[in-house]
Amino acid sequence: MKCFHLSIFVTLCLLISCLTPSSFGYNDLFDIGTAQSVAVTGILTCNGRPSDGTKVKLYDVDTFDPDDLMAEGFTDEKGHFLLEGFETEISDIEPKLNIYHNCNDEHPCLQKFSIEVPDNYITEGKRSQKIFDIGKLNLEGKFSGQQRDCFN
């Protein structure tokens, strides 16, 4: 009976992997989908000064599997960042920028919030042709969806 349940489990796993090739990294292996890229820039501040060393990550949001990390980095001494990344997907990518900070906050876990990138900044191919500029953002404020993230 255990072998029968294992067989069903393996069959289900194979079926799921065929239905969601991106979740197992098969898009690149089988050249399925289209490469789509996006770039985001901005300046982050805290208490009127540049927020240097602030972590930023660019993701493609996925519904049925973990989000795909497209790029990550940190702000420079002027609070500036520029991220560019791409993902190969069958459907359109849904890019978002995650910002992780501790502005006016001494808690060991960072504050995290996301900014969705508008669709018109998505470019077909591995190099972005447009850059989404979030402008100058003061991290002292509270942002919609902001939460603590200890495992970023």
TrEMBL record:
GO cellular component: extracellular region
Family annotation (Gene3D superfamilies): 2.60.40.3330
InterPro entries registered for this protein in UniProt: Transthyretin-like, Transthyretin-like_sf
Signal peptide range: 1-25
Compartments, record wording: Secreted
Family: Belongs to the nematode transthyretin-like family.
A Pfam family recorded for this sequence: TTR-52
Protein name: Uncharacterized protein
Keywords per UniProt: Secreted, Signal
The organism's place on the tree of life at top rank: Eukaryota
Principal cellular location given in the protein's record: secreted
PROSITE patterns in alphabetical order: PROKAR_LIPOPROTEIN (PS51257)
